[in-house]
């Protein structure tokens, strides 16, 4: 009731409010929901290794002093049509990325640098989205850098994903790193910008924001290998015809490198986002963390656990029906939800031998809900074959 009242009521406006609408785009499993949860400081979006975990069209809200950040996660990132049917994605979710970009003041492009199959180029869907909205400033975020043993790979990725241009300046490799086994432990990366534009935070890597120049957070100092920005280059906004052979985007304003799962360097990105906010009225009350209803949060968290514990395509056919949602005598939240599956074999997998799977799902989901709602949760899950 409190959440609904805050969402439906007028926001509490400070004297000089500032806002920034942020669209977070990227390939499936790049870490969009994880990053959003870290920015919020609480888990309100589901996280799973399976694709299309986040399906709701919801926004996260970060309020700090007089500034409000609104993050918009692209739920089903421009999924090919045959996959949209397989994962039962509706039309609203397939068009969501475009709607997010239309209303965004800034776009974060997330790349999973630990995925050696996809990290060397931006997907055609991402490139098409950037080219369709060239007026929206974009920032490249390299995620999961903690999983890279060979740090010099980041040097190559930055050059490829930006086409050698960042913030209108050409990147130049001053000295190449030796790509051998001896440099694979914690080879550092240094990115320096010559005379950054006025009134902008000169942040090209997280460590520069801290006043340092090395990438590795363990304290390894930067070597002579670095990227330096040369003469300013006029960014060219390219149309769809130019995307066929393109791998990167030459119009990124900044580059951030972080490990969202562990919260490493997320605060650096958050400070940057707060600095980019422009004067404007708040859309949400300062106590709101997400535009989702409590029931939507509950459904998403339970669905996250189902995705984790059920194999292949099985979880995508589960239908969730909330049968009870009420407050107990001691202030605890009582939730009863039925999980409807299409086949008896799916029901047996979801229940597990001796009920172990469904019990684990209920236990973990209940703990997450307790952390979100900050109250005791009594969650009961029932599994049925839908008629």
UniProtKB/TrEMBL annotation:
Family: Belongs to the TRAFAC class TrmE-Era-EngA-EngB-Septin-like GTPase superfamily. Era GTPase family.
Matches recorded under Pfam families: KH_2, MMR_HSR1
Family matches, as SUPFAM superfamilies: P-loop containing nucleoside triphosphate hydrolases
Protein's membrane topology: Peripheral membrane protein
Species of origin: Eolophus roseicapilla
Compartment(s) of residence: Mitochondrion inner membrane; Mitochondrion matrix
GO biological process, one term: ribosomal small subunit assembly
Keywords linked to the UniProt accession: GTP-binding, Membrane, Mitochondrion, Mitochondrion inner membrane, Nucleotide-binding, Ribosome biogenesis, RNA-binding, rRNA-binding, Transit peptide
Entry-linked PANTHER family: GTPASE ERA, GTPASE ERA, MITOCHONDRIAL
GO CC terms: mitochondrial inner membrane; mitochondrial matrix
GO molecular function, one term: ribosomal small subunit binding
Gene3D superfamilies in alphabetical order: 3.30.300.20, P-loop containing nucleotide triphosphate hydrolases
Region (Disordered): 182-244
NCBIfam families noted in UniProt: small_GTP (TIGR00231)
Highest taxon, organism lineage: Eukaryota
Sequence ranges of Polar residues compositional bias: 182-196
Encoding gene (name): Eral1
Purpose: Probable GTPase that plays a role in the mitochondrial ribosomal small subunit assembly. Specifically binds the 12S mitochondrial rRNA (12S mt-rRNA) to a 33 nucleotide section delineating the 3' terminal stem-loop region. May act as a chaperone that protects the 12S mt-rRNA on the 28S mitoribosomal subunit during ribosomal small subunit assembly.
Protein name (Swiss-Prot/TrEMBL): GTPase Era, mitochondrial
Domain Era-type G residues, every copy: 18-280
């Amino acid at each position: 009731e409190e959440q609904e009242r805050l969402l439906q009521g007028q926001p509490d406006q400070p004297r000089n409010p500032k806002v920034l609408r942020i669209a977070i785009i990227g390939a499936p499993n790049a870490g969009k929901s994880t990053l959003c949860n870290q920015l919020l400081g609480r888990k309100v979006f589901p996280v799973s290794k399976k694709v299309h975990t986040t399906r709701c069209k919801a926004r996260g809200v970060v309020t700090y002093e007089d500034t409000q950040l609104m993050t918009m996660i692209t739920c089903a990132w421009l999924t090919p049509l045959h996959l949209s049917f397989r994962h039962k994605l509706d039309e609203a979710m397939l068009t969501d990325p475009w709607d997010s970009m239309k209303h965004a003041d800034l776009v974060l492009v997330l790349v999973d640098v630990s995925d050696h199959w996809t990290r060397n180029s931006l997907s055609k869907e991402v490139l098409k989205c950037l080219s369709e909205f060239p007026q929206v400033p974009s920032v490249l975020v390299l995620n999961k850098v903690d999983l890279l043993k060979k740090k010099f790979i980041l040097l190559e990725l930055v050059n490829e994903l930006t086409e050698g241009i960042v913030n209108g300046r050409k990147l130049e490799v001053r000295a190449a790193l030796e790509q051998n086994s001896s440099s694979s432990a914690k080879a550092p990366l240094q990115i320096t910008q010559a005379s950054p534009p006025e009134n902008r935070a000169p942040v090209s890597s997280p460590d520069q924001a801290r006043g340092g120049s090395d990438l590795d957070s363990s304290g390894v100092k930067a070597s002579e290998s670095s990227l330096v920005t040369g003469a300013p280059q006029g960014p060219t906004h390219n149309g769809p015809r130019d995307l066929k052979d393109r791998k990167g985007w030459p119009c990124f304003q900044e580059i951030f490198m972080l490990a969202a799962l562990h919260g490493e360097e997320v605060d650096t990105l958050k400070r940057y986002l707060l600095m980019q906010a422009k004067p404007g009225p708040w859309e949400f009350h300062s106590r709101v963390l997400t535009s989702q209803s409590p029931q939507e949060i509950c459904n998403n968290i339970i669905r996250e656990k189902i995705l984790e514990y059920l194999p292949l395509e099985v979880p995508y056919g589960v239908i969730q029906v909330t049968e009870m949602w009420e407050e107990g005598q001691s202030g605890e939240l009582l939730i009863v939800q039925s999980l409807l599956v299409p086949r008896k074999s799916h029901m047996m997998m979801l229940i597990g031998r001796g009920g172990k799977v469904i019990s684990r799902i209920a236990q973990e989901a209940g703990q997450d809900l307790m952390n979100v709602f900050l109250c005791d949760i009594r969650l009961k899950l029932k599994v049925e074959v839908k008629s």
